[in-house]
Specification:
The protein is of the alpha+beta class and about 190 residues long. It contains 3 helices and 11 strands; from the N terminus they run αββββαβββββββα.
Length: about 190
């Protein structure tokens, strides 16, 4: 994974009004890599009830995107930044709330004791990486929004949970890099 991320040219975007970062957290479980997702509580202002990666806006004290992503993961799910091995960054994306989001990929140790921030996170979702290659898990729809016609929206199913929006776009970018099927710069913006 680290080699795949290091060997590619990341697509950065011009800074938007609110810089942010998320951590795509990987960990081993039962001999297989898993991705940790969060389901946000329903009372939050943005993306309430949606599945996301730990993350948020950059603070002036953050040195870089990795610092933001790991700080937010610490605040939301209790992963100590010192326990995250940063593998690299994915392509920047704009969120519908006008954030410029830099996804950071990192691995944290197996059997890690997580501490969920109940004010922000309803529950955690641990998905085996192999799940995303199973038939029927992935679909794409083409939406019209804010003058953009046929904009691709990605969806991934895991049980009763549906991952979509910015989180699915970041996940697709990661899987494309991992599986060697990425087309650099394609569809990197989120409306």
């Amino acid at each position: 994974m680290k080699t795949s991320l290091a060997a590619r040219r990341r697509v950065a975007m011009e800074a938007g009004p609110v810089p942010a970062a998320v951590l795509l957290p990987l960990f081993m479980k039962n001999g297989e890599y898993h991705i940790l997702f969060t389901k946000r509580t329903t009372h939050l202002t943005h993306h309430s009830g949606e599945i996301s990666f730990p993350g948020g806006r950059c603070e002036p004290s953050d040195r870089d995107s990795a610092d933001t992503a790991t700080r937010e993961a610490w605040e939301e799910v209790g992963i100590d930044p010192a326990d995250v091995e940063i593998l690299g960054e994915l392509d920047d994306c704009h969120s519908i709330h006008n954030y410029l989001v830099t996804p950071v990929v990192g691995i944290f140790p197996e059997n890690y004791v997580l501490t969920v921030n109940d004010a922000e996170i309803e529950r955690l979702i641990e998905v085996p990486l192999s799940h995303f290659s199973e038939p029927g898990v992935y679909r794409v729809e083409y939406w019209d929004h804010k003058g953009i016609k046929n904009y691709p929206m990605y969806f991934y199913l895991y049980g009763d949970d549906e991952i979509w929006g910015l989180t699915a776009r970041i996940l697709k970018n990661f899987l494309d890099v991992l599986w060697g099927v990425e087309q650099a710069g394609e569809e990197s913006e989120q409306f």
